[in-house]
Amino acid sequence: MGDYYEKKDLEDFPDIGEYAPELGEKYFAYYGEAMKAGLLTEREKALIALVVATTQRCPYCIDAYTNQCLSLGISREEMMEAQHVGAAMTAGIVLAHTTQMRKIIRKKEM
Amino acid sequence: MVCIVAEPAFAQKVPGLLTAEGIGVLQLNLGYRCNLACRHCHIGAGPERKEIMSAGTMKQVLDVLKSHPIPLVDITGGSPEMHPDLRELIEECIALGRRVLVRTNGVILLEEPYRSLISFYASKGVEVVVSLPHLDPHVTDRQRGEGVFSRVVEVLKRLNAAGYGQEGSGLVLDLAHNPGGAYMPASQASLESSYKRILRERHAIRFDHLFCLTNMPIGRYREYLKKTDNYAEYMAGLVRAFNPATLDNLMCRTTLSVAWDGTLHDCDFNHILGLPVNHGAPDHISGFDMEKLAHRRIVVGDHCYGCTAGGGSSCRGEIT
Fold first, then answer.
1. Disruptive mutation site among A12, A13, A67, A79 for chain B (greatest number of B CBs within 10 Å)
2. pLDDT per residue over A84-93, tens digit each?
3. Which of A89, B34, B121, B128 could form a disulfide with B79 if both were Cys (CB 3.0 to 4.6 A apart)?
């Protein structure tokens, strides 16, 4: 994995519009709009982003949003509590999908 | 002088020369003595420090104020309260019709013989800026010393009781936030709204504005960055976040900083780095020349990335 995920790769993020600048621009405009305070505060959005980052296992996003949460004065306890929401949701998603497994078992077993 | 290596050098980022546009603020550093020794302090202030502004230098400062209409006197340290002539200085400035602002760590206002300063400040209409780095007591205590958070809360309550931060009182109470680690502050508006809500809900405290300060990679904070292997990443982050929109509002453009020994600097950071004003402007209060200083060319270094990153930073917080 070492060759694929390097910390300095995060610096490349602003350049992801390379080869498709118009689409890149549109993405960043959308990204900026989605992340700025609206009905939800910047704090709430940063915590959502942090949990998405870990549940989606993106080291770049984990780095960026851990820093963003610290910058916003969000405590370690609040960050960890949010992560438990992600962990509970992830476990729940696994268990909810056992419905498919159980349906098949019920159908296949005599 | 401390050499901070950043790539590219800050001077290359500035289009043309950075120059002052008058002197709206005279910042006075009364000395490095302080009752605390906070981990982020760029000055390295503490109880063991002896540097203090002499009576002669203070007189030179007042002479400058008497003959030049500089509207705001911004008093800092160290802990400015530990200067024996603070009250006299404030009284003279107020008598000259100047706005006076005092930067305090807060907790000293609970100690004798400084407790009576709260009512003194209120009677003179002094604006007070209290340092409160974080709403989490553990983070603030880690940075500034055990028990500091609860003592700052107590001081803020006393300031509120004296009229500070209360609507219509005219007594301004501002707080200063700075990050408790190797990261930059978020937007001032967002942090101010958290501070206002949480301090009101948990402690019934009110204040006017929150100033978000980026930690300068100098002094004790620089040592911390180096020791924890965060220095290179922090500097790279500041360089990446360079925002040209901050250049018009940099505090050095309207502030002149007077060190405890009367040396003149473009800012308190240049003061600590041993970089006095230059380029032909007088570098000591004894040779004050309004014309030359008001249009002086500013001395820059790579630490200037600290004031120009993101939303920018100044003694009054964000600048964009």
1. A67
2. 999 999 999 9
3. B34
